[in-house]
Amino acid sequence: MLQATQNFLTRVPDSTLPEVQQAVAAASQAQPAWAAIPSHQRRAKLFDLVNAIQHNRSKILTCLVTEVGKTMQDAESEYDRGIDSLLAATGTGHEVRGNYWSSHSNDTWTVHEPLGVCVSVTPFNFPFLIPLWSIPIAVLTGNTVILKPSEKTPSTSMILAECFLNAGFPPGVFNVIHGGANAVAALLSQPPVMAIHYVGSEIGGERVYEHAKANRKRVQVECGGKNHAVVMPDASKTATLYALAGSAFGTAGQRCMASSVVLFVGPSIEWLPELVEVASSLVVGCGIDPSVTMGPLITRASKDRVVAMINEAEQDGAHVLLDGRNCSVDGYPNGNFLGPTIITRVEPFMQCYQEEIFGPVLLCVQVATLHDAIEWVNDNRYGNGCTLFTSSPSSAKTFQDQVNVGQIGINVPVLANAIEAPSGSIPRTTNKDSFLGG
After folding, report:
1. Please, what sign has the CA dihedral across residues 269, 272, 278, 284?
2. For 228-424, which CATH class?
3. 85, 98, 325, 432: least CB-packed within 10 angstroms?
4. Where's the Aldehyde dehydrogenase domain (predicted)?
5. Given 63, 118, 163, 256, which residue is catalytic?
6. HSE-up (13 A, CA, CB side) for residue 310
7. Mean pLDDT score of the chain
8. Where are the domains of the chain?
9. Are 391 and 233 in contact (CB under 8 A)?
10. Does the active-site annotation cover 256?
C-alpha cells in the first residue's frame, strides 16, 4: 500500500501450510549439495548477487519509497547499508571454517558445520537491509534460507528473490514465503528448520522465542527498544541538535535504533527551544518529493497507536512541546502522516516511557548529573542502544563503563555496525528485554 495515499500497490496472499512445507522441503533438499560446494565458490555467488542487486537498484529504491513510505534519502541509505552488509559477508575469512590450537601434548581443531535450513523473519521498516544482516552469512556457511518478510512490505523480498535467481543460485538455496503469525508458526513447526533469526515487535518476538525453544531450534530474537541519548553541556550544540532530530524523526521514528528519549544533563536543557526549531524545519510528505525529509507511518493503525500514546502522556501530566498530531500534507489527505513531536515533563511510570512508541516522538527529561542519566538508562527494561553526546573523554569512558546497554555510542546519532562488523557475523550485543536467545 502507498502509505501517502492508502492506495493499494500489490496484494500478496498468505502462504498456505502446503506452500510452507514445499518451501521447507526445497530448502532441505538443496542444503547438502549447497554445503558440499567449496566455500570460495559460495563466496563467488555472493559477488554475483551483489551485481544482480545493483542492476535492480532503481526498483528497490522505488519499493522502499512507495511501499515503506521512506524518503529517497532514507531509501538510498538503506540500500547502501544493505550492499555494505552483503560485501562484508563476502569478506568473512577463516573464522567461518573453525580454529586450530597446538600445544606440546596435543593439537585441537574446531570445525564449523552448517546447521541446515535457517529462517529469517524480518520487519516492515527495513525490508532490504535486515534480511541482509543474516542471510549472506547463512548462505556463505553452507545453509539454505527461508525469508518471511513483513506482510506490510512484501515486495522488496520478491525483488531480492529475483536477484538470487539471476545470480545463479541453485533452486532451494533462497526461498520466500508470505503471511503473518500463522506462516511463522507453520515454519517453526517444521522439523528440517534448525535456526530462526527474528527482528520485530516484542510480542511477536516472545512468541517466536517460546515456539522455537519448544521445538528445540536455535533462535535469536531482536525486539523492542527504548534508546536513550544523554546530552552533556560540553557537547557540540549544533551537531548534537541535528543528530537528535535525525535519530528521533528519521524514517518517521520507525526504527529500532532511533533515539526516542533525550536526557539533558544540567544546563543543556536550555538547548530545547533550538531542538524544537530543528525538528519544526523537517518537511513531512510523500517520499517521492525530493524536498521531503520525513515520510508517513506504515499504517493507519500505527498512526492511531502513536497518537493514543501522545494523548495518554498528556493526560498523565506530560507536556507536548511540539505537537505533530494535526499534521496534514497538501495533496495527500489520506496519508498516515504524523509530524515531529517533542514531549517534556516525562516521568518513568508513563506508558510513553515504558513502551516503544515506534513513531516520530521524542521524550525529553532533565537530570542533574551524568550519574543520574546512567541510572535512568540502567533502570529502563530495554537494552538495545544508547549514546552520549560530549566533548569529554572522561565522561565518555565513565558512560561506557557504567551503562548497562548492549550497544553504546559516543556522539553517534544512530547506532549501526561498521562495514567490517556485519550484524550477521558477530554476536548480537543487545541485552535486557530487547533480546532473547543466544
Report:
1. positive
2. alpha beta
3. 98
4. 4-419
5. 256
6. 24
7. 92
8. 17-223, 228-424
9. no
10. yes
